[in-house]
Amino acid sequence: MTIDRRQFLAAAAASAASLAAQPGFEWGGPVLDIHLHLRPDPEMNFAHITGSGVTVAVLLTRVQDAAKAKALAEAHPGRFVWFASADVSNPANDALLSQAVRDGALGLGEIKNKVDCDGPEMKRMYALAADLNVPIQIHFGDVPQASGNAVFNGGFKRFDKMLKAFPKTKFIAHADTFWANVSADYQYDTAYPSGPIKPGGISDKWLSEYPHLWADMSANSCNNFLNRDPEFTEGFLARHQDKLIFGCDCPCADGRGGGTTNPNPRLHGNCIARETLAAARKMSQPEVFRKIRWENGAKLLGIASPTPVL
Ligand SMILES: [Zn+2]
Ligand SMILES: [Zn+2]
């Protein structure tokens, strides 16, 4: 079969277009962001991933907004997937979450309600996630924050009982109480403890002991952890290199820190995605950083690597 010049040029143009559509790999390869809250203006979501060098973002979407997440994923092929969330205190929402998964949601999250992490509501969610065979992403916040946050999924100290009781559930842990508890001396007195980490904390231990527990590296909470005690953190990133998944939870406008303020001086005026990717890259070997920025999350969610690969 021969190909004429017109066909050749058309094929070359199509190929160039698809390459041009690939994001630049600013971080050395593709990046999966497991924690981007769906923004009301669809293009603001796209602005954040392009500005921060993210390849694919998980849009954390309330079930009521499922159509918006789906539309965005269709408008930007290969750039967005989505998780679904709902108020877990109302069992009637379980059917909506199940429907969202049938409609393409790849996980339940972010689950953040004023309930206990081992109470009846969350037990129902852990069972539902296992039934649906999707991960559940949980905000653990035992310490009320200055911003007026209450306690969410409280009782983290007891969470190992849930890990034991729900071996088929894929748990993704997130937020301040999880990251503060990497240190064995956490006093539950502040959401963002500082200073050296005392080895042996429950979050570190449970990541080692439970194959169905992953960690979401988003937000001030993980960024704070990364910067507390770099020497300890290098070992932590290497030790849990198959369990750590990058995420941002960043509110900035453009993926470059625009339009945001942050009470943490290190993050003020900066994009959390960029700050956390830079810190993780600095504190890990290239193959570990590759797992953090892409492989672990892509494998957990079943997302194929874009070409050119890794
Ligand atoms: Zn959260
Ligand atoms: Zn940002």
User: What is the number of helical segments per DSSP (H or I, 4+ residues)?
Assistant: 12
What is the CATH superfamily? Metal-dependent hydrolases
**Name of the level-1 CATH class:** Alpha Beta
Q: Averaging pLDDT over every residue, what do you get? A: 92
CATH architecture: Alpha-Beta Barrel
Quaternary organisation of the protein chains: single chain
Helix content: 40-55%
The total strand number stands at 8
- Helix/strand/pairing category: alpha/beta
Distance between the termini: 34 Å
Instruction: Report Rg.
Output: 20 Å
Write a structural description.
The protein contains 12 helices and 8 strands. It has about 300 residues and is an alpha/beta fold. The chain has an 8-stranded parallel beta sheet with strand order 1-2-3-4-5-6-7-8. The chain has a single domain, classed as TIM Barrel. It has helices at about 5-20, 40-50, 65-75, 95-100, 120-130, 160-165, 175-180, 200-210, 220-230, 230-240, 270-280, 285-300, and strands at about 30-35, 55-60, 80-85, 105-110, 135-140, 170-175, 215, 245. Helix 9 (about 220-230) runs parallel beside helix 11. Strand 2 (about 55-60), helix 3 and strand 3 (about 80-85) form a beta-alpha-beta unit. The two termini are about 35 Å apart. About 40% of the residues lie in helices and about 10% in strands. It is globular. About 45% of the residues are buried. The structure holds zinc ion (2 copies). One zinc ion binds near residues 112 and 175.
